[in-house]
Amino acid sequence: MRLTVFGNNATCPEADGACACYLLEAAGKKILLDLGDASLAKLQQKIDLAEIDLILISHWHFDHMGDLFCAKYQLETRAANGEVMRPILLAGPAAPPWAMAELGSGGVFEFCPLEAGRETTLQGVKVQPFALPHLIESYGLRLRAEGKTFAYSGDTGATDEVQALARGADLFLCEASLRNEQTAEQGHHLCAGMAGRFAARAGARRLVLTHYPASHAAAILAQARQQYPAAVLSRIFESYEIG
Question: Options 3.60.15.10, 3.40.50.800, 3.40.50.2000, 3.30.70.100; which CATH number does 2-241 get?
Answer without folding.
Answer: 3.60.15.10
